[in-house]
Amino acid sequence: MESLYGGCTLRENWSEPGLTGGSLNTFVVGDRKWHQTWTDSGGSWREFVGGIVDGKMILIWSRPSQRVPGATARERMTFTPNPDGTVRQYMDQSLDGKKWVEGYDYTYEPIKSH
Helix and strand tally (H, E) in the chain? Predict the structure, then answer.
């Protein structure tokens, strides 16, 4: 993570073999929510919106479903700080906002200084 623009925006860069991506994360005073714009080298783009709920950062991207006409598909990312300094990022998906299925479950560890 990198702080930008006087601390008002955080930039994340991410990579795995064959894919790179990143996001800009900004707290918007007008709606009092966090907004994350994500894009990657595979041409993906997402705009998540959310905030802190019960000590966890929850961001949701909503869009018209490509599989179910008239439905709204969602991806929900939940970031949970752990007592050991790691952060869990859990993503689940829904076609109706009621039934959710796991997308991924990561744990981030702080970089140890030398």
Answer: 0, 9
Task: Decide if 3 contacts 12 (C-beta within 8 A).
Answer: no
Do residues 79 and 92 lie in contact, with contact meaning Cβ atoms separated by under 8 Å?
A: no
Q: What is the pLDDT of residues 37-70, one digit of tens each?
A: 999 999 999 999 999 999 999 999 999 888 888 8
The position carrying tokens 């929510």 is 33
Whether 80 and 86 have beta carbons less than 8 Å apart is answered as no
- Residue 66 backbone phi and psi in degrees, to 5: -85, -20
Residue 1 near residue 11 (C-beta atoms within 8 A): yes
pLDDT of residue 32: 95
Q: What is the pLDDT of residue 114?
A: 62
